[in-house]
Amino acid sequence: MNGEFDERGSLRVVSIDDKLQPILTEVLRRNAGEAEFHQAVREVLESLGRVIAKHPHYLDQALIERICEPERQIIFRVPWHDDKGQIHINRGFRVQFNSALGPYKGGLRFHPSVNVGIIKFLGFEQTFKNALTSLPIGGGKGGSDFDPKGRSETEIMRFCQSFMTELFRHLGEYTDVPAGDIGVGGREIGFMFGQYKRLTNRYEAGVLTGKGLAYGGSRARKEATGYGNTWFVESMLATRGTTFEGKRVVVSGSGNVAIYTMEKVMDLGGKVIACSDSGGYVVDENGIDLGLVKEIKEVRRARISEYARLRGTGAHYIAGGSIWDVPCEVAMPSATQNEITGKDARTLVKNGLVALGEGANMPSTPDAIQIFRSAGVLFAPGKAANAGGVATSALEMQQNASRDSWTSEQTQTRLAGIMRSIHDTCAATAEEYGAPGDYVLGANIAGFVKVAEAMNALGVI
Length: 461
Ligand code: NDP
Ligand code: 2IT
Prior knowledge:
The protein is α/β, with parallel strands linked by helices. The chain has 3 domains: 2-67, Glutamate Dehydrogenase, chain A, domain 3 (Glutamate Dehydrogenase, Chain A, domain 3); 72-204, Rossmann fold, CATH 3.40.50.10860; 222-385, Rossmann fold. It is 46% helix and 17% strand. The protein has 18 helices and 14 strands. Strands 11-10-9-8-12-13-14 form a 7-stranded mixed β-sheet, with helices on both faces. Strands 3-4-6-5-7 form a 5-stranded mixed β-sheet. A two-stranded antiparallel sheet has the order 1-2. Helix 9 (221-238) packs across helix 10 (256-267). It is globular and about 60 Å long. The two termini are 35 Å apart. Residues 105-107, 126, 129, 179, 181, 209, 361, 389-390, 393 line the site of (2Z)-2-iminopentanedioic acid.
């Protein structure tokens, strides 16, 4: 172990096996400037020293090098007209990362920050996450630097149609199955499915997931990521003989994942006192009124600042700032990558944090994770904790393949079972590799071994 300063100037502990260091160095060299991708690869490689000590053949077969290299990367132009007739050009991406376990599977993100490094980090994480579900899905991710904020519904539709006009040739229920992510929800999936159907003249329901219930979607898909993360944290809390009952909970974001995290936390007796969007956060010591958040975000598509105005006394809005300054026992980051810095982590620990479940992908910086681990916080990494969304996408694919539709109860029972099994697999793997309670190590090793074993069996492809 040794220390180094990261880009934010915080000290982080680095422990990478000597045999893996050259692989990481090569990944950094070949993918210059892709900071988020570097971060995601580094974290996984830091966990693999104990694996190669046990299974040296992973090194002989260059499995780690192959896993770090996407199978295919597609970048394309997306031209579209706004409502005034002006032409805009965005960039579209689809990174088909790994298909050893099944068709590429993973969401599409529409956000101005999207670039190839972000899509690659997401695709890399997705590969291990999907493996952890034990369902037959490979890893992929895509999206665009299109900014949906302030765009009319017709502009969104034209953008989605133009995006799919190129992407459709790379998709298929046995090839690549996208879903939503930031900026892509049921409405956008509907527009993209419509265009795919029109271009191919095929009603191929299983080519996209997160569809509306009216045309082949699965019950509980919308709720799945948030519910799944909450169940995962519930399982972690149970290892210390405690529950959500009466705990103060902070949930960042107020989009799909955040809303259904809040719903399940409240269901389990937790008290959600704050949530946010990219403009700032609201604190409501009486407990967040979820009906109001849904009205603001799902119906009006407005800003979270509206919450304080409409709720009246007891609630206040803080523009900018960090939601992690709000004291809580459980934190559920559900907005975006690197939203919890080392400084935030220190504040959370000082304020008595017990558990954290990553609803977002890679929301904690490496130094934040290090602080949580050293403080003995129950820490659930995104690739395990937020796997409920993609798992339910795979259940949607099953329903589409059998031309069936399950009840909400049936789907939620499957999802709860999958989340329990991911929790137990991560815990058991951490224990097996000599780090009991380390869910980061457990998730990285268990996910990696599943993908590596399948790749090994398929030959050098
Ligand atoms: P949504 O678009 O529904 O919501 C995103 C929320 O996060 C919004 O409140 C948004 O605020 C906020 N946010 C987004 N980017 C930033 C930013 N750069 N800074 C501050 N706040 C930001 O997306 P989802 O809820 O679907 O996704 C949230 C996270 O969960 C992402 O990390 C995603 O990858 C991950 N995830 C999603 C899954 C899913 O099934 N949808 C599954 C697994 C993980 P604003 O509206 O102001 O931009
Ligand atoms: O990050 C994720 O797991 C998602 N955005 C969901 C992917 C999916 O295919 O359902």
